[in-house]
């Protein structure tokens, strides 16, 4: 072992669940290190729909989850405003949708305290012109849209500010046990290959779809079914509010606005492999056919890319003795001491993005109990700094659109970016679709570790617009090499990787303009810039 | 009634129209928008994205050996035209030359404008970038070039054009600035100063972005060459490249000058057939549909990238004439008076998105030969 670290708690998994736990631990004064095999959000937490549930979707099928969602929805809007747009949502009943379900739904929402307000169909059609004119009834609910990635990085950054540590690009390779007790984890720096160990009193498995693998390392039986869902991104935002279909939840029945685009989904197919992010054209077509019922002109709208993620669904059957503590049906908190006789080890799985805070609260309550720490959860009131920065960037010599974006996006990075922008070259626009300047890119780069465009994209929105990185990936990589922020190998490698990743996401939706954009990208890289065969790796 | 109606304003469309006029045909050109040369590099490749030679090219494009002399004629005709238009092209398809791109990688091409020089294996080169121009990063280029040219001694420097704008500066914007003599003189001064400071000796070649002047390219290249006392080359890369824009502008001006009637911002939305012949095109301008009749038609709609083919979930559709095609876009029954050229011939002709300049020239030339034969009543001799 080349390095041994010590802490009180190790959190495995840099998804929203792990991040929430890390922050809660930090707020309660417990030392912790979060270990993530990729960048933050490598898993489901950046591969979901970004809907801040009002609870409406679960009102009939799972009242408990519905209430939890609604309560968390209210808390998150207050405590993490920077990542949430209070769009509101609509539940729309179409002629073919079951009347009984609609009645049950209304009764249940009322009983659960989820505020529902019916609005005239004409009004709904005026406000959402793309909605099916045949809609029979429309109800407003307090749904919202979450930027899953900013949520995750902001929660983590807040934890780090409060003394927690994160190790990204570090993979947990083993769990160290001594006499029926977990005492630490072995980790490998995936960029350098360096092996390290972290000794800790408690290890929390928050590895989402990979949770089974982690439990296996501790010799604990755990059954998680990964249910893969597909989502697609439209080139522009055509709905102001979230649009849900008022029927028993199914495939392809939610449209969520996200910044300037609309995200539509989803599907559910079980998969064995947590690393399976594959996309299928028939699945997409089936989903679009469903979506047409709500938005009839769906075929005329341009899809810019698709992605998929897996919901980890906990199966109670695999436990040894007692069946663990089911927090609710969707969310499982397993005390492996109680359940399997393995002390110092906890698994938290299932749940939703919307309920991550609650999952963290329950988990950290259990950690405190085990450590004998008396401290109450405060994440329901403590806020995470927002991203809006008022009238900053007044002096920066940048286009109005870039200034607007920075004011709504830079958050705590604002002073750093603002001072970098004083230099002319830092204020050069690198990504025109999303108005990203070099100053932002530089602020988004990790202090150490290798240069990766994916991490920069998620932190700045570089390459997220209609051209999907055709131009700006090249500019960013070349600039990084130019300015000594990346070696030439890193720059070229990052570029080829980013291009092939984008191609994967675009390939399945590649018709019309998107097919053209994909070809243009290939022509520019292969023909104009002379990139060789390597440009085609993993495509 | 026109003798020839060309659909598309890319390289193939404009060349077809110019050459049809040279044959004395009354010619119209209908186009929705600009062609791909606006995004192109301005050089003419054999197999796009590959350094395969003439034989491999002929294999890939299923060309017979008898087409080789036509290829030579096509290239000669193109070079003669470009000489006349004041933007001469060099090179031969038998003899590909290595040029450096805006990423520092080497690509091999057949025909190239006079602003481009090949990169040698040995000797020395200096890459010059402009601080304001994000699309061309000299150190990055130098490092990539060094990988491909280990024996070449390469340096890189960055200078100011002295024009910052909040908008992203392109290679074309930079070219327009370099059309101004005082800016060029200032740049040369900066280059000399930096070379002296960094003790860089006079190289064999200076590598610039594809920005060495737009209208004044000759003066620009000439001044850099004589005052820096070394060869200079442009390294085309991210669009728009001045190398390609010059070609586009000169062809367009020539087409207009020679009397081609332009129907700009006009989309072909169908064809009126009379048996196996196209009688007229249905064209749409600002929402209004009308007919445009002609004797012969050239389809130069550029394939998928040019807009001539649409990829739909059901497969490829020909989107201008709405004629039935097979799965690669080849027309099931080609009307007798229609000549598809370039990428309009079907997606099987496409490598990495395009057909390549040399094939574009050949297919355009062949189409014009076909016109000539039928206009003079010689179809039977074909
Ligand atoms: C298609 C789809 C749509 C959804 N839509 C919504 C929605 O609209 N609203 C909502 O509230 N919820 C939604 N969800 C649910 C929500 O996304 C998930 O519940 C949530 O993201 C789970 O987060 P997590 O942190 O538990 O898992 P993850 O985000 O997957 O995090 C687990 C992390 O562990 C890491 N890891 C795994 N193994 C190791 C190891 N050996 N070493 C180190 N790190 C490791 C992984 O890299 C990963 O980053 C959706 C889910 C899906 C699949
Ligand atoms: C990024 C890029 C880089 C390139 N680099 C190189 C290179 O390095 N070497 C090389 O040899 N070649 C290169 N090329 C290719 C080269 O530029 C083209 O092959 C060449 O310009 C020929 O194109 P074209 O005339 O066949 O079609 P296009 O230029 O695509 O023109 C098609 C025309 O048809 C019009 N049109 C389409 N549909 C309709 C309709 N229904 N009605 C009316 N008009 C219509 C369009 O508006 C357009 O004007 C590159 C191309 C691109 C995009």
From TrEMBL, chain A:
<comment type="pathway">
    <text>Polyol metabolism; glycerol degradation via glycerol kinase pathway; glycerone phosphate from sn-glycerol 3-phosphate (anaerobic route): step 1/1.</text>
</comment>
<dbReference type="Pfam" id="PF01266">
    <property type="entry name" value="DAO"/>
</dbReference>
<dbReference type="InterPro" id="IPR000447">
    <property type="entry name" value="G3P_DH_FAD-dep"/>
</dbReference>
<dbReference type="InterPro" id="IPR007419">
    <property type="entry name" value="BFD-like_2Fe2S-bd_dom"/>
</dbReference>
<dbReference type="GO" id="GO:0009331">
    <property type="term" value="C:glycerol-3-phosphate dehydrogenase (FAD) complex"/>
</dbReference>
<dbReference type="GO" id="GO:0046174">
    <property type="term" value="P:polyol catabolic process"/>
</dbReference>
<keyword id="KW-0285">Flavoprotein</keyword>
<protein>
    <recommendedName>
        <fullName>Aerobic glycerol-3-phosphate dehydrogenase</fullName>
        <ecNumber>1.1.5.3</ecNumber>
    </recommendedName>
</protein>
<dbReference type="InterPro" id="IPR041854">
    <property type="entry name" value="BFD-like_2Fe2S-bd_dom_sf"/>
</dbReference>
<dbReference type="GO" id="GO:0050660">
    <property type="term" value="F:flavin adenine dinucleotide binding"/>
</dbReference>
<keyword id="KW-0560">Oxidoreductase</keyword>
<dbReference type="InterPro" id="IPR017752">
    <property type="entry name" value="G3P_DH_GlpA_su"/>
</dbReference>
<dbReference type="GO" id="GO:0004368">
    <property type="term" value="F:glycerol-3-phosphate dehydrogenase (quinone) activity"/>
</dbReference>
<keyword id="KW-0472">Membrane</keyword>
<comment type="pathway">
    <text>Polyol metabolism; glycerol degradation via glycerol kinase pathway; glycerone phosphate from sn-glycerol 3-phosphate (aerobic route): step 1/1.</text>
</comment>
<dbReference type="GO" id="GO:0005886">
    <property type="term" value="C:plasma membrane"/>
</dbReference>
<dbReference type="GO" id="GO:0006072">
    <property type="term" value="P:glycerol-3-phosphate metabolic process"/>
</dbReference>
<dbReference type="GO" id="GO:0010181">
    <property type="term" value="F:FMN binding"/>
</dbReference>
<feature type="domain" description="BFD-like [2Fe-2S]-binding">
    <location>
        <begin position="429"/>
        <end position="479"/>
    </location>
</feature>
<dbReference type="InterPro" id="IPR036188">
    <property type="entry name" value="FAD/NAD-bd_sf"/>
</dbReference>
<keyword id="KW-0274">FAD</keyword>
<dbReference type="InterPro" id="IPR006076">
    <property type="entry name" value="FAD-dep_OxRdtase"/>
</dbReference>
Automatic annotation (TrEMBL), chain B:
<dbReference type="Pfam" id="PF00890">
    <property type="entry name" value="FAD_binding_2"/>
</dbReference>
<dbReference type="GO" id="GO:0016491">
    <property type="term" value="F:oxidoreductase activity"/>
</dbReference>
<feature type="domain" description="FAD-dependent oxidoreductase 2 FAD-binding">
    <location>
        <begin position="3"/>
        <end position="310"/>
    </location>
</feature>
<protein>
    <submittedName>
        <fullName>Anaerobic glycerol-3-phosphate dehydrogenase subunit B</fullName>
    </submittedName>
</protein>
<keyword id="KW-0560">Oxidoreductase</keyword>
<keyword id="KW-0285">Flavoprotein</keyword>
<dbReference type="InterPro" id="IPR003953">
    <property type="entry name" value="FAD-dep_OxRdtase_2_FAD-bd"/>
</dbReference>
<dbReference type="InterPro" id="IPR036188">
    <property type="entry name" value="FAD/NAD-bd_sf"/>
</dbReference>
């Amino acid at each position: 072992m080349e390095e041994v670290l010590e802490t009180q708690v190790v959190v495995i998994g840099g998804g929203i669940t792990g991040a929430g736990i890390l922050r809660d631990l930090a707020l309660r004064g417990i030392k912790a290190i979060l270990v993530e095999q990729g960048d933050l959000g490598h898993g489901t937490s950046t591969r979901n729909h970004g809907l801040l549930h009002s609870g409406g979707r679960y009102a009939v099928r799972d009242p408990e989850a519905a209430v939890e969602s609604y309560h968390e929805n209210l808390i998150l809007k207050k405590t993490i405003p920077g990542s949430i747009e209070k769009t509101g949502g609509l539940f729309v009943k179409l002629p073919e949708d079951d009347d009984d379900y609609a009645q049950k739904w209304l009764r249940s929402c009322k009983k659960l305290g989820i505020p529902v307000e019916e609005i005239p169909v004409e009004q709904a059609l005026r406000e959402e012109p793309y909605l099916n004119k045949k809609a029979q009834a429309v109800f407003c609910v307090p749904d919202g849209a979450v930027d899953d990635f900013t949520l995750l990085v902001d929660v983590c950054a807040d934890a780090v500010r409060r003394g927690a540590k994160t190790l990204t690009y570090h993979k947990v390779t083993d769990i160290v046990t001594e006499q029926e007790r977990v005492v630490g984890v072995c980790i490998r720096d995936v960029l350098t290959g360096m092996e390290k160990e972290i000794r800790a009193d408690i290890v929390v498995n928050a590895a989402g779809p990979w949770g089974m693998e982690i439990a296996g390392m501790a010799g604990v039986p755990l059954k998680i079914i990964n249910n893969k869902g597909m989502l697609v991104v439209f080139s522009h935002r055509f709905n102001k509010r979230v649009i849900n279909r008022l029927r028993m939840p199914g495939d392809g029945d939610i449209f969520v606005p996200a910044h300037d685009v609309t995200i539509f989904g989803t599907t559910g197919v079980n998969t064995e492999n947590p690393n399976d992010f594959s996309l299928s054209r028939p699945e997409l077509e089936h989903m679009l056919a469903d979506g047409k019922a709500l938005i009839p002109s769906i075929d005329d709208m341009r899809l810019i890319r698709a992605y998929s993620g897996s919901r980890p669904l906990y199966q109670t059957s695999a436990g040894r003795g007692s069946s663990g503590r089911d927090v609710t049906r969707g969310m499982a908190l397993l005390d492996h001491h109680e359940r399997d006789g393995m002390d110092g080890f906890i698994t938290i799985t299932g749940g939703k993005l919307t309920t991550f805070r609650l999952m963290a609260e329950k988990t950290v309550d259990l950690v405190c109990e085990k450590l004998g720490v008396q401290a109450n959860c405060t994440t329901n009131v403590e806020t995470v700094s927002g991203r809006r920065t008022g009238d900053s960037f007044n002096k920066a010599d940048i286009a109005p659109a870039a200034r607007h974006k920075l004011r709504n996006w830079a958050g705590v990075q604002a002073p750093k970016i603002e001072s970098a922008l004083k230099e002319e070259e830092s204020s050069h626009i690198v990504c025109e679709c999303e108005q990203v300047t070099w100053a932002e890119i530089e602020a988004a780069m990790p202090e150490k570790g290798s240069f990766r465009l994916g991490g920069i994209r998620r932190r700045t929105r570089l390459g997220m617009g209609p051209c999907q990185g055709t131009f700006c990936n090249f500019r960013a990589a070349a600039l990084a090499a130019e300015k000594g922020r990346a070696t030439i190998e890193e720059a070229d490698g990052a570029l080829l990787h980013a291009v092939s990743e984008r191609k994967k996401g675009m390939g399945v939706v590649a018709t019309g303009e998107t097919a053209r954009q994909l070809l243009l990208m290939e022509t520019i890289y292969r023909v104009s810039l002379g990139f060789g065969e390597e440009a085609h790796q993993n495509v | 009634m026109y003798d020839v109606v060309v659909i598309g304003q890319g390289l193939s469309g404009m060349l077809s129209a110019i050459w049809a006029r040279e044959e004395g045909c009354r010619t119209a050109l209908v186009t929705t928008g600009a062609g791909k040369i606006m995004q192109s590099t301005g050089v003419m490749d054999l197999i796009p994205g590959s350094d395969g030679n003439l034989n491999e090219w002929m294999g890939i494009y299923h060309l017979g050996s008898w087409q080789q002399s036509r290829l030579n004629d096509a290239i000669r005709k193109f070079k003669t035209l470009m000489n006349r238009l004041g933007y001469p092209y060099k090179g031969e398809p038998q003899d590909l030359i290595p040029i450096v791109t805006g990423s520092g990688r080497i690509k091999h091409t057949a025909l190239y404008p006079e602003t481009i020089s090949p990169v040698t294996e040995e000797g020395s080169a200096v890459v010059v970038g402009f601080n304001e121009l994000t699309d061309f990063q000299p150190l990055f280029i130098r490092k990539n070039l060094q990988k491909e040219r280990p024996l070449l001694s390469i340096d890189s420097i960055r200078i100011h054009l002295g024009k910052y704008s909040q908008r992203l500066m392109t290679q074309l914007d930079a070219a327009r600035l370099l059309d101004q003599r005082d800016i060029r003189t200032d740049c040369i001064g900066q280059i000399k100063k930096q070379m002296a400071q960094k003790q860089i000796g006079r190289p064999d070649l200076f590598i610039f972005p594809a920005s060495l002047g737009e209208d004044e390219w000759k003066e620009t290249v000439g001044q850099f060459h004589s005052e820096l006392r070394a060869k200079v080359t442009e390294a085309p890369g991210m669009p728009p490249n001045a190398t390609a824009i010059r070609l586009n502008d000169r062809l367009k001006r020539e087409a207009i000058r020679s009397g081609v009637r332009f129907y700009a911002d006009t989309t072909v939305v169908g064809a009126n057939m009379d048996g196996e012949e196209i009688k007229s095109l249905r064209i749409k301008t600002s929402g209004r549909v009308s007919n445009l009749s002609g004797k012969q038609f050239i389809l130069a709609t550029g394939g998928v990238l040019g807009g001539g083919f649409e990829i739909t979930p059901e497969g490829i559709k020909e989107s201008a004439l709405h004629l039935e095609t097979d799965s690669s876009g080849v027309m099931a029954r080609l009307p007798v008076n229609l000549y598809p050229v370039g990428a309009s011939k079907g997606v099987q002709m496409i490598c990495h998105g395009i057909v390549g300049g040399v094939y574009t020239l050949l297919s355009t030339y062949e189409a014009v030969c076909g016109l000539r034969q039928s206009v003079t009543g010689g179809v039977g001799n074909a």
